[in-house]
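Quick one, C-alpha cells below. Sequence please?
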C-alpha cells in the first residue's frame, strides 16, 4: 500500500480503534469515530466526546491523553477469503482542544462525516491528534491462501 493510498483509506474510514496509555502504563484501546483534515504532511485527526451514554462523564481516554499524549490508532479491512486484507496505522500526539476556533472547525469536520452529529452535536471535550506517521499494509494480489 502506498502512503497516498493509506491516507485515502484513513480519510474514508468510518471507525478506528484508538490506543492510549493509562497513567499506570497499561494500554487502553477503544473504538472511535474521527475526521481527518489537512494535507498528507500535516494531517490532524479529530474526535469528540459525544452524548452517547458513558460509564462516567470524564472518560478514561481524556485522562490518559493528559498524562501521556502519545497515541496510535488503526483502521482495517477484513475479507473472509483473505484476498482483500489491509490495515492503516496512525501514530501521533493528542491534545484536548482549548481554542474555540479550532474546536468549531473540528466539530464541523465531524458533522460533515457523521450525519448523526448534525442533530446531536458532541458536547464534551474535542481532541486533536497531530499525526506524526501513517503506515499501511495490504495483501499482495498475487498471494493466494
Amino acid at each position: 500500500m502506498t502512503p497516498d493510498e493509506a491516507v485515502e483509506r484513513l480519510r474514508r474510514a468510518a471507525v478506528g480503534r484508538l490506543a492510549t496509555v493509562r497513567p499506570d502504563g497499561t494500554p487502553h484501546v477503544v473504538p472511535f469515530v474521527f475526521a481527518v483534515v489537512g494535507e498528507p504532511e500535516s494531517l490532524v485527526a479529530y474526535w469528540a466526546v459525544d452524548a452517547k451514554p458513558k460509564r462516567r462523564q470524564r472518560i478514561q481516554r481524556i485522562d490518559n491523553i493528559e498524562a501521556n499524549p502519545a497515541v496510535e490508532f488503526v483502521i482495517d479491512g477484513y475479507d473472509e477469503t483473505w484476498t482483500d486484507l489491509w490495515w492503516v496505522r496512525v501514530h501521533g500526539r493528542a491534545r484536548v482542544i482549548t481554542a474555540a476556533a479550532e474546536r468549531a472547525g473540528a466539530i464541523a469536520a465531524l458533522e460533515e462525516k457523521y450525519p448523526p452529529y448534525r442533530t446531536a452535536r458532541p458536547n464534551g471535550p474535542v481532541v486533536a491528534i497531530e499525526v506524526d506517521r501513517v503506515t499501511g499494509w495490504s495483501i499482495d494480489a498475487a498471494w493466494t491462501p
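Strands lie at 16-21, 27-32, 35-37, 44-48, 70-77, 86-96, 126-138. The mean pLDDT is 92.
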